[in-house]
Known about the structure:
Layout: E1 2-7, H1 19-28, E2 32-37, H2 44-54, H3 69-80
Parallel strand pairs: 1-2
Amino acid sequence: xxxxxxxxxxxxxxxxxxxxxxxxxxxxxxxxxxxxxxxxxxxxxxxxxxxxxxxxxxxxxxxxxxxxxxxxxxxxxxxxx
Length: 81
């Protein structure tokens, strides 16, 4: 299973459970969590690193640094055609 998480800031992850814990639970269950940061925002300067540290995980993450949305969408479109 693959879960894609996208957003344009870190404030979207202030729920009852820390996102790291939820991500780690999913990764333990064999789920890949992709991070798709939207870098057209006030937090763009730190968002790529934040996604890499707190979002991306699992048996087959796309890379060690978050890919751009355009790259992910083009790769998925290519695979699905």
